[in-house]
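Researcher: Predict the fold of RNA polymerase sigma factor YlaC.
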Amino acid sequence: MRASTPSTLPGLSGTGNLPDPGLSSEAELVRRARTDPDSFGQLYRLHHPAIARYIRRRVGDRDTADDLVADTFATALAKLGRYRDRGLPFRSWLYGLASNGIRRWLRRSVHRRHCGLEETAEPAHAGEAPAVDAAESARVALLSLPARYQTTLALHYLEGLSVLEVAGVMGCRPGTVKARLSRGRELLRARLEVQSAEVTS
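Model: Structure tokens for RNA polymerase sigma factor YlaC follow.
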């Protein structure tokens, strides 16, 4: 069964205005959203585009991504009462929820492949190279990396989060993020070189 779509959540119609300019800060909007569905709807409309883009980049499949986006905002609504402002933008918390959902999906996908429950793509005909553009090639290479490097690289380079924000999302020190960025770049570069060699051979 597919997860509930975002539009089924209280106050989420997918249309309407962005946060009231009279609000002093996003923190005030978050405070109101704990008891006011319309305020949560404003948070949803403000952050949905970025969270949806992030998840779609990570998983590739649009239907799966849409389910994970819905799950992310449903979880945000359920856990909003426990959210604490730790000096980082509210989006950092949402990215953390999204990353956790992606990590669970990746574990399930690996399990399904190991158990033979997941369909595999039809092989290309002999002598026929699959058409893969540079962006898709990079995404495939990124998905081949360990999850901690996938998440770190995607949040920093694709979503534009600062090292401090990424550290907040992943629950680690900024120095750890910097080390993962460095190592992740090396792994990604090596993987892209392997893919390039496979295509040209």
